[in-house]
Input
Amino acid sequence: MTIIQSIIIAIIEGLTEFLPISSTGHMILASTIMKIQDDAFVKTFEISIQLGAILAIVLMYAKRFLQGISIYLKLGFAFLPTAVIGFLAYDFIKTYLFNSTIVSISLIVGGIILILIDKKVVEQKSSTIDLEDISYKRAFFIGLIQCFSMIPGVSRAAATIIGGVFNGLDKKQATEFSFLLAVPTMFAATGYDLLKTSISFTDHELFLLGLGLIIAFITAWIAVKIFLKIVENYGFKHFGYYRIVIGVLFLIFIREV
Output
């Protein structure tokens, strides 16, 4: 992996991690286009730079995380299904689902769903005054929907936002709960991936990792700020259109490669 390639992948990670368009899917597709060799370091790099994006959310929502233990308990219930299913299905997912065709189809299907729920989101008023007031049952259900995001291209953000909408949250609350749930989910997923990976780094590789973490942090911070404004003013349908277009383009592309 070159410095330019690492910068591009890190920018893609930061920009897409918290948007409902699938960061994993975009990194797989970008790696395919740039013909990046899928070796142990590249896999570790793509996993590790997620920590930069997570840190952006931790700092951005530090005040909410420091308000009390309630939000941690709700997030814990939401994270539970992903923890169990992810542990059991880890090897199957990594072996059979990480390919460009699965990503492209998932992008298209997810895009259609986002467009279909957009009208519901625009008209829906929240049944929960504050995110801390969400019930454990609803938090758990959102976590169940998040499990679909283990399929590359589905998008963890899209899954949790859809889960939040169908559990009575308005579009802003569903989006923010998705951000908060990303912290335990991504920390666990990243940590588990790194534990399963035994690799020693060269000085050049350590430099690429550090550079990737910083770039992912900065771009994630910017992306979240912009995303909240877009959702508030326009909803989710435009992300659905984007997913469909990019999914179709890559289905065409991978057939020609």
Notes: The chain has one domain: 3-256. Residues 111 and 242 are 7 Å apart (CA to CA).
